[in-house]
Amino acid sequence: MASPWLYSPIASVQSPSPEVTKDDEDSMCSNALKDEFRHNTENRFIPLKKAGSGTYGVVWIALQAALTAQNPVPSANTLRAGICAVKVPVEDSDECTVASEVDVLKRVNAATSPTMSKHFPELLDWLLTLEPSENDNFNWFSMAAIIPSITLRDVSSSCDRSKEPMPETLVSHVAVQLSNAIGFLHEQSPPILHEDLHEGNVMLKVDMKSPFKMPTVVLIDFGLSGRCGGTSTLGDELMFYALLFALANTQQPCTHDGKLPPEPLALCHHDKNWIDFVMGLYWALELESLPLREFNNLYVPKAMERVNNADGRTLSNIEDLLRLIMERVPQITDEEILEAIAISESN
Ligand SMILES: Nc1ncnc2c1ncn2[C@@H]1O[C@H](COP(=O)(O)OP(=O)(O)OP(=O)(O)O)[C@@H](O)[C@H]1O
Ligand SMILES: [Mg+2]
Fold first, then answer.
1. I need a labelling partner for 28 at 20 to 30 A (CA). Which of 97, 110, 163, 285 fits?
2. 121 ligand 1 Cβ < 6 A
3. Alpha carbon separation from 55 to 90, 95, 171, 195, 224 (Å, rounded)
4. What pLDDT, in 10s, does the model give residues 75-94?
């Protein structure tokens, strides 16, 4: 079979055809990618939407095909419960990253208590080809889908668009939950190092039922975990502080290089705890040192206090922000589910 990857947008741009519109190209490209995904997962999954892709992997929101094999096919609403997220390696990437991610998720899932497990993806199933050949290169794993699929990057982009700082209470909430999750990883023996902590690798599980509850912070993407082979937790700690520092400084001047001169920030905020928190991050990054244990002692109790004492107005601002982001994330409709099943049956 000709590789569907040949239908890359770049290839299409190089050989323009007057009859083919941009929408046609996108849809051809998307259909080809879906074919590739079905092939690589041996038709175990029916792709619905691409959730994201990076240097090493592509994540698809997909239906478990076995669920649709029943006669009669269950309703779209029932099938919704069988939606999961499936990660496959991008072509030419090192398949080992999928295997090592599965290993880490197995360790994390086995070790966590329910209060901790909510901060990590739940591994459902996987297939690893031990000796991949050109035609047999089946590596994938599935995990519980987080829908709507929102990352901290979506939140900071939304704040950037509306030229608003990220709510301090939300940043504090992320600091508390993420420091817990990272601390848990580092406590394992040997420690689990994430090694790729950034806004795109932190998801928010949003529950919009009333009354509003703060979202659950979920740390995803263990594809680079352990790549350096060491046990020093410093790299993760600095990435974590840089991530919080960037969130705390959304919409502040001079933040794009990741560093902000301390004085202007101190001048424009009056809450002492918040200034201490941001300055603590600043100096941790400057000095390249602040063990997570110390961060937990110095700042987490104050951040927790801020979250626990948040007033109704603060919470409703955060709720509005999350609603706005969710409206931008395309929902999976019943029609899309039924159409995806029909396409997969016709193949
Ligand atoms: N369990 C999940 N449920 C829903 N969406 C998910 C899930 N896991 C990942 N995603 C989405 O897929 C995107 C890519 O996932 P992930 O970071 O694991 O892949 P990646 O290929 O390593 O990407 P990158 O290199 O950009 O970090 C995430 O940013 C998120 O939007
Ligand atoms: Mg990622």
1. 97
2. yes
3. 7, 12, 28, 15, 11
4. 888 889 889 999 998 876 66
